[in-house]
């Protein structure tokens, strides 16, 4: 009896510093959650990107000159893929937390032997997986439609991962903060979408007026998309190395903020 009490002392974790089995189980659950509705989570972003590409190429593709030394369509395609990648990462984590709060099944996570760090990382890594799958599928389909150039696969992957990790962390925070779907929509409409359109997806930020150009230089979305595009074309609007360091810093800070808020139980009872 004494040995059992020593072995299972109250308040002491029995899984070591990191519960790998619990982390993997939650990660797998989140991945299966978006794979079950793959038409909505994987196919829909691809169709949206293709429609943007079709409309813009038909409307101004032939009339627009080169951008950063490449054709407008070659410049546009990586930006469209990157924009969907980061938006879907935000959508995944925010909807996961928001639905869990509304339906009440977030208690399944709260009662599980998982630390706040394990919960946040598993959910965010699942969002990264969704974004990487979207990127791979989009690149394959786009390559059949237009001529895609591949300069450096490392930059394509690392900026896909960092962008989705940051937006996954922000989505996690947004899911905690929002008490209604209207509040979540306000984050998307007034934060995510404006920053996406100011990120240089459809144009070089050199064309922006002074104030907007200055804002874009601090916009993490710009460095996500610019670095992703650099992996294809080998040209960029800004410093790729600075963008990499900038995004690594923001990814840690955004995850840490999500970790602290979840650890405190911020608005979880709503």
Plain-language structure description:
This protein is an all-alpha fold and 270 residues long. It has one domain (38-55, 69-264). The protein is built from 11 helices and no strands. The protein has helices at 2-7, 20-36, 38-61, 72-103, 107-110, 116-145, 153-177, 181-197, 210-216, 220-233, 240-264. α4 (72-103) crosses α10 (220-233). It is elongated and about 70 Å long. The protein starts with a helix and ends in a 6-residue tail after the last helix.
Describe the secondary-structure layout:
Blueprint: H1 2-7, H2 20-36, H3 38-61, H4 72-103, H5 107-110, H6 116-145, H7 153-177, H8 181-197, H9 210-216, H10 220-233, H11 240-264
The H/E string reads HHHHHHHHHHH
The total strand number stands at 0
Compute the CA-based radius of gyration.
Answer: 20 Å
Shape category = elongated
The total tally of domains equals 1
Number of helices: 11
Q: Overall pLDDT, averaged? A: 88
| Through-space gap between termini | 42 Å
Low-confidence stretches: none
- Give a short account of the largest sheet: none
Structural class, from helix and strand content?
A: mainly alpha
How much of the sequence is in beta strands? under 5%
What share of the residues lie within helices? over 70%
């Amino acid at each position: 009896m004494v040995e059992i009490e020593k072995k299972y002392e109250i308040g002491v974790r029995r899984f070591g510093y990191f519960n790998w089995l619990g982390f993997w189980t939650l990660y797998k659950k989140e991945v299966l959650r978006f794979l079950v509705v793959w038409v909505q989570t994987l196919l829909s972003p691809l169709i949206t990107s293709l429609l943007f590409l079709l409309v813009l190429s038909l409307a101004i593709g032939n009339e627009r000159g080169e951008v950063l030394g490449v054709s407008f369509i070659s410049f546009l395609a990586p930006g469209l893929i990157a924009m969907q990648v980061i938006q879907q990462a935000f959508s995944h984590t925010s909807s996961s937390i928001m639905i869990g709060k509304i339906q009440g099944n977030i208690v399944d996570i709260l009662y599980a032997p998982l630390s706040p760090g394990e919960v946040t990382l598993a959910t965010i890594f699942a969002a990264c997986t969704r974004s990487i799958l979207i990127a791979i599928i989009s690149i394959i389909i786009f390559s059949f439609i237009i001529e895609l150039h591949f300069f450096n696969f490392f930059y394509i992957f690392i900026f896909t991962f960092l962008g989705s990790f940051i937006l996954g962390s922000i989505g996690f925070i947004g899911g905690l903060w929002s008490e209604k779907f209207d509040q979540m929509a306000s984050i998307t409409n007034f934060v995510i979408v404006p920053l996406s359109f100011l990120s240089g997806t459809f144009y070089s930020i050199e064309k922006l007026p002074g104030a907007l150009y200055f804002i874009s230089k601090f916009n993490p979305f710009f460095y996500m998309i610019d670095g992703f595009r650099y992996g294809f074309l080998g040209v960029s609007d800004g410093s790729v190395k600075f963008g990499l360091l900038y995004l690594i810093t923001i990814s840690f800070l955004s995850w840490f903020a999500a970790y602290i808020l979840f650890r405190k139980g911020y608005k979880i009872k709503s």
